[in-house]
Please model this.
Amino acid sequence: MRVYRVTAVAGFVCAVLLVVNSARRAGLVPENAFTHAIAPFAALTGLLAITGIYLLIRGSAGGLGLAGYVLNAAGLAGAFAIEYILHFVFPYLGGGTVSALLAGGTGRAFLVTSVVLVTGVLTFGAAAIRSGALPVAAVALYAVGMIPGSLRNLMPLPVYLGGLVLAAVGVAWMAVRLWSADDEPVTAVGTRPVRPGA
Model:
């Protein structure tokens, strides 16, 4: 299994986890140890997926693509850390302690992570669309969905959850493109020859 297919699988897993997380928050899936344990891995598998997407578009995405990838990756890494804290640290602290942390430096760090993620998603999305290597609608769904999906504490719950589902559709759609990319011949970094008769 080559790199695009590995990252495509990560994209499919990310999409499933985003939908499961949304369903759990909406009360459609039970809250239990398993659903909490898998929750943070949506961000981690998303990080792997956008790495594959960046490798696919890097030849035509230029500096904007690199900047978007770095910011998007940093935001997703931060989101993984936040989800880990929310599911595996905060439940074992008293409510007063959690409130104090969120009112101080921890809350500011969460906000900075959200801003970095939104900035990265929008920049990376613009570069991905400009590259022409991915379906525009897939990239748009990812970008539009991740805006409320990144701002969980600033959005009404239905908007936040709806954003995660839209992002999941976009990620899955881009993962389909990643999966098929391994069937295309590559001549050099970022370049792909036209197939005979194409």
User: Anything to note?
Assistant: The chain is about 75% helix and 0% strand. The chain has one domain: 3-181. Residues 3-181 form one domain.
